[in-house]
Amino acid sequence: MGLSKRFRKNVKPRLPDGVRIYAIGDVHGRADLLQSLLTVIDADLARSAPERAIQVFLGDYVDRGPDSRAVLDILIERSKSHETVCLKGNHEVFLLEVLKDPARLQEWRHYGGLLTLVSYGINPTMNPTPEEQIELIEGLRRALPPEHLSFLQQLRSSFACGDFFFVHAGVKPGVALERQKDEDLLWIREEFLESDRRFGKYVVHGHTPVSAPDIRPNRINIDTGAYATGNLTLLTIQGDSLLAL
Prior knowledge:
- By secondary structure, the chain is of the alpha/beta class.
- It has a single domain (19-244), classed as Metallo-dependent phosphatases (Purple Acid Phosphatase, chain A, domain 2).
- It has 11 helices and 10 strands.
- A 5-stranded mixed sheet has the order 3-2-1-9-10, with helices on one face. A 5-stranded mixed sheet has the order 4-5-6-8-7, with no helix packed on it.
- A hairpin with a 2-residue loop joins strand 9 and strand 10 (241-244).
- The radius of gyration is 19 Å and the shape is globular.
- 36% of the residues are buried.
């Protein structure tokens, strides 16, 4: 029993035969970079034609970068012609919370939310008063297309395929994957990042920017800070092979 457990630990995680996954890290309003990577994916699909291709987006589509609205347009359109899995990031959750409570706009500012407003044609002052905050969020409600709101409300917290578990931020060590809470899936940092435990599946995540894809025995982080660095990472997985671009 002990020998077989050690053996299983050393076996590479793998996807089911015939499945290829393309995973993209935190976009944060960089519609230009997202479109470039989708062009790369399309060229790869045309060249190699896998039996089943799944495109997984790890959340944080809005805020910080210049064109959150266009990012959502692209993802919604992409889902009509390709098998896609769009995961929820903490920034999408925050956007929905601000729509319910305009008083949180000042907090949203610190997460780069004013750039999201601008992408919807709303131009806030740098320090809006409480009255202006209400007006700004009312303006956002009017400007937000129904399909964008529906998209944000229907985002999933996680996705599993084969030996891989895709999530925005990470998982709480010591808790079974099926019992994870959204608070951890969307926000966790140090407790997860510093853990060398096996999590039941190999975790693919973003949320915490790194200068290059951070590949560990138990996880890979593909958030390369696209809004600041211009580097949006694409991870391709087939069988037990991982390739980050």
